[in-house]
Amino acid sequence: MAELINMPRLSDTMEEGTVAKWLFKVGEKIAEGDILAEIETDKATMEFESFNEGTLLYIGVQEGETAPVDVLLAIIGEVGEDISEFINENSNAEVISENKKETIIETEVKIEDKPLTVPDGVEVITMPRLSDTMEEGTIATWNKKVGDLVKEGDILAEIETDKATMEFESFHTGVLLEVGVKEGETALVDAVLAIIGPKGTNVSGILDRYSSGGEKVIKEASVKKETPVVVETKVETTKSVTPVSTVDNVRVFISPLAKKLAEEKGINLSQLRGSGENGRIIKRDIENYQPLAVGASAYTPVGEESFEEVKNSQMRKVIAKRLGESKFMAPHYYLTVELDMDNAIAARAAINSDPDVKVSYNDMVVKASAMALRKHPKVNSHWTDTSTLIAKHIHIGIAVAVDEGLLVPVLKFADQMTYSQIGANVKEMAGKARNKKLTPLEMEGSTFTVSNLGMFGIKEFTSIINQPNSAILSVGAIVQKPVVKNGQIAIGNTMTVTLACDHRTVDGATGAAFLQTFRKYVENPVTMFV
């Protein structure tokens, strides 16, 4: 009988997974315990075993595709078995198509079910996007009236954006037949701005189709979900392309009006820096021009703006979600202390004099944190809607940077470990984290977290609490600096640590008391052996 295999939940925070690789093809025999696929979760890429025997009859999520937990992943059964009923009942395509449909719906606008016909020679001009953040524009001034002849390069209007008032040029020649947005009115990007064409052409139907002004249709569509309709039309979105002049073999972007004014005033365009989009020289640049001093340079760097698009991994998505939830749901506050590290440095040197022992400052910090938590259990807690849970055990999470983000392996019962045991465990789990070999069990159950950036030379920083913990300790670098000891200035070694606390569970005095105890242990390591 056919067995349905669903996308497994491979970690406590996993909500969806990506199939990195299928190790079997449809039609191949599978034994119980075989690795069926490699699945990328929010924390690692993990092998997924089959708990059934049979033939792989169906694959529901292809390599590279992402699906929510419990969506049909595969079907295993006997050769020739009819599985059409299972596929129809658990169609992943429906889930994917619904998601895609919703995305399309939110970005497209329904105009009308029948095609819109634009007469020959007629051009529909829409509100241009004149800056990267522009969503709507206001017509400050129309430079042409309905019935006026418009030539390519003429300034049609001045448009006020979110950043500046900019001249808008026509890229077409013809008569201004209709204006869709009046002076002082505001319309969203892509709303109908004007219609240009042969004199006497009837274009009233075009404006009617755009709800008498265009901007109303666009604004409504931004909040309503309509079935997308493909409209075959000659309507074009006018792009903010700027005519180019050449000065001393250097390309200069300038509006026609600005060029005309510059010629009238005898201004050398090579001495101007444009304030318009992409460095374009516009009217106000000519009006505000100040001649350069003798010997001054007006060189303007020219380059190409570009971005590299990197698809967010499942790990990156969940990190963003969890940290956002922590930062904006838990009321953070921060306590910072500077520690005297002279005794710690001497103690570490003495311990490491044994060739078989290698203890790091991070090992000492983790040990001191665990012992301080034993004396201040309220810091070793987490918040729920109904109560505060104070953990009797001490499991310390160690933040480890990996290529795709941050993982937090957990040292279980850290207060019972020696320096060497802490060091060995941290080294092993950090290596597994970087190789994506950590198991969910090794990343679950932390009650407190330590984040150390001292090895990168960071002197001081704050961290976002690793929920559901109530606190996280940020550890900076050891710095040699002048300090006051016994009333005298001397060279000392200090280290700054910052405790971020959730104010719902840890009051300021409680956090401060924890840091006092932590300071005592780190500044006098021998006390940790008592």
**SS strand fraction:** 25-35%
CATH architecture of the largest domain: 2-Layer Sandwich
- Alpha carbon gyration radius: 33 Å
Domains (count): 4
Q: Let me know the number of strands.
A: 28
Low-confidence spans: 96-113, 211-244
**Alpha plus pi helix count:** 11
The CATH first-level class of the largest domain comes to: Alpha Beta
The CATH topology of the largest domain is given as: Chloramphenicol Acetyltransferase
Largest sheet: 6 strands, mixed
The helicity comes to 10-25%
On the 0-100 scale, what is the average pLDDT? Answer: 82
Query: Which superfamily, in CATH terms, is the homologous superfamily of the largest domain?
Result: Chloramphenicol acetyltransferase-like domain
What is the 3D shape?
Answer: flat
Counting helices, strands and paired strands, the structural category is alpha+beta
Strands side by side in the biggest sheet: 19-28-27-26-22-25
Distance between the termini: 64 Å
Provide keyphrases for this structure:
530 residues; alpha+beta; OB fold (Dihydrolipoamide Acetyltransferase, E2P); 28% strand; 28 strands; 4-stranded antiparallel beta sheet; 6-stranded mixed beta sheet; flat; Dihydrolipoamide Transferase
Would you kindly provide a written description of the structure presented here, covering whatever features stand out?
The strands form eight sheets. A six-stranded mixed beta sheet has the order 19-28-27-26-22-25. Strands 1-8-6-3 form a four-stranded antiparallel beta sheet, with no helix packed on it. It is flat, with a radius of gyration of 33 Å. Helix content is 23%, strand content 28%. It has four domains: 3-107, RNA polymerase II/Efflux pump adaptor protein, barrel-sandwich hybrid domain (OB fold (Dihydrolipoamide Acetyltransferase, E2P), Beta Barrel); 123-221, RNA polymerase II/Efflux pump adaptor protein, barrel-sandwich hybrid domain (OB fold (Dihydrolipoamide Acetyltransferase, E2P)), CATH 2.40.50.100; 244-287, Dihydrolipoamide Transferase (Irregular), CATH 4.10.320.10; 314-529, 2-Layer Sandwich (Chloramphenicol Acetyltransferase), CATH 3.30.559. The protein has helices spanning 84-89, 92-107, 204-209, 215-221, 256-265, 283-287, 314-329, 342-351, 361-375, 419-434, 508-523, and strands spanning 3-6, 16-22, 29-30, 35-40, 45-49, 54-59, 66-68, 72-77, 123-126, 136-142, 149-150, 155-160, 165-169, 174-179, 186-188, 192-197, 244-247, 250-253, 332-340, 381-383, 388-390, 396-398, 400-402, 405-407, 410-411, 448-452, 471-485, 488-502. The chain is built from eleven helices and 28 strands. With 530 residues, it is α+β, with helices and mostly antiparallel strands.
